[in-house]
Amino acid sequence: MTGTPANRAIEAIWRIESPKLIARLTRIVRDVGLAEEIAQDALVAALEQWPRDGVPRNPGAWLTATAKHRAVDLVRRDVRLGQKIVELGRDLEVRQAMDVRNLGAETAADSDIDDDLLRLVFVACHPVLSTDARVALTLRVLAGLTTKEIARAFLVPEPTVAQRISRAKRTLAEAAVPFEVPARDELAERLPSVLEVVYLVFNEGYSATAGEDWIRPSLCEEAMRLGRVLAGLAPDEPEVHGLVALMEIQASRIRARVGPTGEPILLLDQDRSRWDHVLIGRGLAALSRADELGDRRGEHGAYAVQAAIAACHARALTAADTDWVRIAALYDILAKIMRSAVVELNRAVAVGMAYGPTAGLELLDLVGGDPALARYHLLPSVRGDLLVKLGRHGEAHVEFARAAALTANGRERTLLLDRAATALARTDGEGPDRRDQSPGPV
């Protein structure tokens, strides 16, 4: 899109309206790929007409009406739908007879819109798709990002993203994935897939796995927006609120996580006055809701526990005020909920901060041989932290250098190489260094 006022307005409106429009159309045509094509046709029509005629008073209703008109034409031409053409065409002809200007009240009162959006969430995040495909399709149809934007965010070629999205749509069509919210007995099985996709998007923004930027705030914002939408659509699911709480509290630190030139600033070195206290407040409110719902069910999920850990940092006015004993206890709980080498790695960091570096290193040695961590740069990074605190700077230098070789993020590599150099410079005066208290990936 060009930079004209009309086109900028169209872009903003499209980002807001496209998920709802695609959801409505998917309910009609039962095909995400076809629904997006019809929605794109409506966008093209807007690009042609709005700069000339002006943005309509209710742009969402205009796009809906235009898309439904085009759906009628397309369905009539699609012989694959057989007898459904007659029924669908009759239903849509009744709708298209309405004046577009009178559609505002209908659109605002459409009680099915939330259900449609929730169905679309579960379709886009269906387990039949690979994780990469779920992420790409979710960002495309629910966040309204272009293929180019998704490719830039994840530092992969645009054709690769386009192929993932195309393959995902084809897979969904071939598998005849129903456009529906899972039944209550299936929801517990399917919801983690949805939450995983949203959190993957957030994490890629919060700590970019590759490239020269350590954080990508736009991805965090999209993930939080999707999380808030999901919380509104599934208000009684505690883990949805737990994930929202975790993302809001983590995102509150974004401005403080980088220096003037984009260099990383570790948690305990951050200027906490730069933390976003509005986001912290929203996150704590979401955590309270997650805890309330969890108490009713007699269980608390992994996202809620991780949010509680993040809340410990958020509530500490200074780094020295951090309740590391509570954080270590929460990691004990988390380790029972989700057994993972990464959780154990984080638990070692917390134990090291709460009970001393020797205790942390002992715990780290128990998990260090896990194949899942063989190429994970934070394992040697955490080991380097603990070794520095024990005054074993020569060993720490080796670990930081190894971590730098494993990371694909340029900013993080520079940080780790600097820490390796600092450790090497201290080898002449081996001894515990109380100044270096920066935790790893907690």
From TrEMBL:
| RNA polymerase sigma factor 70 region 4 type domain residues | 123-172
Protein origin, superkingdom:
Bacteria
The protein's name in its UniProt record? RNA polymerase sigma factor
Q: Which SUPFAM superfamilies match?
A: Sigma2 domain of RNA polymerase sigma factors, Sigma3 and sigma4 domains of RNA polymerase sigma factors
Q: Does the keyword DNA-binding apply?
A: no
Family, similarity comment:
Belongs to the sigma-70 factor family. ECF subfamily.
Q: Which UniProt keywords apply?
A: Sigma factor, Transcription, Transcription regulation
Tell me the NCBIfam families matching this sequence: sigma70-ECF
Which one Pfam family would you cite for this protein? DUF6596
